[in-house]
């Protein structure tokens, strides 16, 4: 466990996408997935309390903001879901909707 969190408490939904697959899933035309610079994940029980809640998602978003992506990439927060997008575009970008 990293920092006391469940390091297997998420699953990768999407990484690199071919142009055809990106179009089929409704991805942005300039998606970082097309360049292999983005990952979408689904959050499960990160804090090991036996539940998958928005608290778990908040932990992941905090780690992305402070330790991994910082001001060097994008973070899609997608409120109301357990999905998170992050990428390495080289500059800060944040959004809430798909």
Task: Describe this protein's structure.
This protein has 98 residues and is an alpha+beta fold. The chain has a single domain, classed as Muramoyl-pentapeptide Carboxypeptidase, domain 2, CATH 3.30.1380.10. The chain has 2 helices and 5 strands; from the N terminus they run E-H-E-H-E-E-E. A 5-stranded mixed beta sheet has the order 1-2-4-3-5, covered by helices on one side. A hairpin with a 6-residue loop joins strand 3 and strand 4. The relative contact order is 0.19.
Would you spell out the secondary-structure blueprint of this structure?
Layout: E1 10-14, H1 19-24, E2 38-43, H2 54-68, E3 74-76, E4 83-87, E5 93-95
Parallel strand pairs: 3-5
Antiparallel strand pairs: 1-2, 2-4, 3-4
